Batch of 2 targets.
Target 1
Amino acid sequence: MQASRLKLLQGMPVFGGIKEDILTFVLDLSPIVNVPKGDFFFRENDKGSSMFVLEKGKVAVLKPWKGRDYLLKYLESGDCFGEMALIDFCPRSASVLSVEDCTAIELTTSTLYRLYEMDLEQFTMIQMNMGREVTRRLREADDQLFQAKVEAKLINGSYEFHST
């Protein structure tokens, strides 16, 4: 099972460039969590101190608003979520609901701290990779917001530069 988990991590952008022995170290310290269909990994505004790598199953990322949950996206095996909590130490920004029975690898702040103590370079690489992943998602959200504003005619015409 450890070999398949190692292969899973090696195929993920968050762990790109990370040495195999470091990934093994991280896996050895990371609990495996099972979340049955219909249960939440976490809810918006929960305290966050870990990220999850979805090994098996499917989850829905939901944003509650005015008493209803709105679907942002589905995530499946090989996707990660919750990494913002490891970067900004803020409460969860969305809820993650298991829509199938799920198994996930939980990477905690304490695991990252142990890695920091052991290999600062590899720790830094993971942090940079998480930052890239968050940035990629932010760019995607920016594009979606822009498109929605244009389609709703909240943005008028084009801009022309005029020097003063």
Target 2
Amino acid sequence: MTFNLHIPVLTYILLGTCVALALIFCLYYILPLFRLGRWRRHCNEEAAPLDPDATAASASIVVYSRDDVHGLERLIPELLGQDYEGDYEVVVVNEGESAEVRDYIDSLQMAHRNLYLTHTPDGARNLSRKKLALTLGIKAARGEVVVLTTATSIVKSNRWLAEMMRPFNNDAAIELVTGVAIPVEGEDCARGRRRRSFDFIADCATWLTAALRHHPYRGMEQNIAYRRELFFNNKGFSRSLNIQHGDDDIFVNEIARADNTAVQLSDESIVRFDGDIFNITYGEDAARRAFTGRHIRRGARRRMAVGSLAIWLWIIAAAATVYADPTNWLTAGTVAVTGLAILTMTFLGWRSAMKSLNGRSLLLTLPWLVMTRPFRKFYYRLRSRKGHNLTYL
């Protein structure tokens, strides 16, 4: 091989394409991932007691349950022991009437006057039972802000509520706060666990980085809060009552704006959720979100797709470049440098995102997972179309 600066015009164009694709990948796709770590550090540094002269907004924690008495036994004591400067209550809303859930809540109400229970009627038809349950819980709530979670959630910090309420108390313009919920670490041991871990974190990174760029469009059912008045001003879930799901993406897409939404990523605000069958539930949730994703704006979600597309286009351009001028060190070196830049930024960016969101540590599988993620997203879109009867009512 030789080092020759005089190369054909076509080779120059192909080399320029390789460099441009590498820059697009690194600057447009990878750099926003580092913002997650910076924002988490910012939230932790901001985590100080509320100003004594400030008045903390009242809060209602609405817990959605599907006869999950064991989850409630784990969660409710943690919620009742929250260290929050303002008034708060816990409203458990169960899907249908359950004697076990009622007996458990009754056993706690004598000692905790801020604990309440409601349930959906057993005969409810032709509407989303979860949306009905949340609507009943929010109507029963008396706080200025409703903080939503589920019986599958695990809250380890007694400052969780204070952290989720901090943006509301510090800025009167904030009407919606999105938090994060992560599967319990180590419970998913089934085949494909690395793929699921990456896809879950990639999903979170997509909507979180969009929110940090002032384009919020979704949240997580286990950890989200909004002003009660905002819910009623939007007429609740009325625009999507014919869809079973969408309470934390379609609805959030309706009410979230750049100036009224905050992201909370402090250590104490992060919630875990029971993931002992995550290998099954993730696929179901991904298919549901692929369906509801048709009803929300797509612009903020395209950044992740661009990254994977850039890698595939770079591979094609790199192969064409080497084929066009196979004996030139300049050509091979340029291709190698751009490829190394893509690999290095992939490792650094995604490992930073995984660490920021308490995800599984990944290394050698990262490039392949990034490249193949669009195919998995396409699979879930196809799956959601076949499950039409499970998404519309």
